[in-house]
Amino acid sequence: EVRLVESGGKSVQPGGSLRLSCAASGFTFSSYDMEWHRQAPGKERELVSSITHTSSVTKYADSVKGRFTISRDNAKNTVSLQMNSLKPEDTAVYYCTATWRNEYWGQGTQVTVSS
Fold it and tell me: Which pLDDT value is given to residue 43?
């Protein structure tokens, strides 16, 4: 059974930091590129960041560039998203996805940035 389980979402104040993690199982994690997407209420889903299966290339949406960092550990089958200098507009449900021969999605974790 394929599973992607996100964790680390919580409520934080503007300017704060969070680290999201995604634990993968049931597929060959090291062969898949990994992505973080987010969806805020009333808005379209947005690709936040991606990392290739070898970690050789990382990409970021302009809205998070310089504030978020994606990383992965193929030995532990995990991908993480370090989020710094959080803003209220970062409030959303964050999803971990795996892409290659198939596409897999996690259930999401809520991040709320509010004072």
Answer: 95
Query: What is the 3-state secondary structure of 77-106?
Result: CEEEEEECCCCHHHCEEEEEEEECCCEEEC
Query: By the 8 A CB rule, do 36 and 4 touch?
Result: no
φ, ψ for residue 92, nearest 5 deg: 180, 170
Which residue type occupies 7? Answer: S
Mean pLDDT of the 72-91 span:
98
Using DSSP, state whether 30 is helix, strand or coil.
helix
